[in-house]
Amino acid sequence: MRIGNWQLDLISGGRFRIDGGVLFGIVPRTVWQNVAPPVDSLHRTMVDTHCIVARDGQNVVLIDTGYGGKYSPLDRKVNDLEPREPIVEGIASLGIKPEEVTHVLFSHLHFDHAGGATRWTTDRQIVPTFPNARHWVHQWEWEDAMGQASEIRAAYPIQNIGPLAEAGLVDVFQHDGELLPGLTARLSGGHTRGHTCFYFEDAESSVLFIGDICPSAAHVRPQWHTAYELYPLQTRSVKPKILADAVERRTWVVWNHDIEIPVSRVGRGPKQEFTIYDTATGL
């Protein structure tokens, strides 16, 4: 898909299995299993980690990085993680080498969004996967992740982000606005304090990477959100506003964890509920 000067492609940062109660929070299993049937006896459902690759002839931008390849066999078994480095294989499918990525943008820094930003070397050192890229993240998200407070430390493995700081590759932004021509960041909060959505826009169309503020098409329902939400009331407040804007502008939305509907537009039903249409498997 082309938006202005940007060529956009959707790749996977790796599929994995997650407990349905974690993905759908307070929603009862008798309800969520109708839209995301469990795939095993552990009540897990399969999700993806969709990432955007954007190229304008000068910049190669990656939004989110999936979970990466640093996990032990036991860790992989817990969530049925894919082998090797899915994000590196994903960009390779587009003919892109890690050294050619110029910018990495994070919606937030949880393991399944930032884990692919670092990798093991052959001598067991952890280094940036994209050594020539500037890594952009909201200041609040960076502060919370690097602060390693006991109550949220497990959500922010330091091995995923510490090497980026050591290499001097991190740029934080504080306000909504244009990061590159036609590419805009907008703070949502909710899922985490610094959770950010990204828009590619021109005069005729737009694409929204909505992140975990609405991780799947099923989560357009007002009360549906993950159990990981640090600020659930903020999510319930801001999500309808983001979706209403997407309806008005006929924006293409990337549902980053939806294995069945990676991309779609959003509409309104007869009772003004949000609906999904123009579903697509890629951009």
UniProtKB/TrEMBL annotation:
Which Pfam families does UniProt cross-reference here?
Lactamase_B
Transmembrane stretches in the record are none
Q: Does the keyword Hydrolase apply?
A: yes
Q: Name the SMART domains on file.
A: Lactamase_B
Q: Does the keyword Transmembrane helix apply?
A: no
InterPro entries the record matches: MBL_superfamily_lactonases, Metallo-B-lactamas, RibonucZ/Hydroxyglut_hydro
A single Gene Ontology MF term assigned here is: hydrolase activity
UniProt KW keywords: Hydrolase, Metal-binding, Zinc
- EC number(s) on record? 3.1.1.-
Q: Where is the Metallo-beta-lactamase domain?
A: 48-257
**Recorded family membership:** Belongs to the metallo-beta-lactamase superfamily.
Q: Which PANTHER family match?
A: QUORUM-QUENCHING LACTONASE YTNP-RELATED, QUORUM-QUENCHING LACTONASE YTNP-RELATED-RELATED
**Name the UniProt record assigns to this protein:** Putative quorum-quenching lactonase YtnP
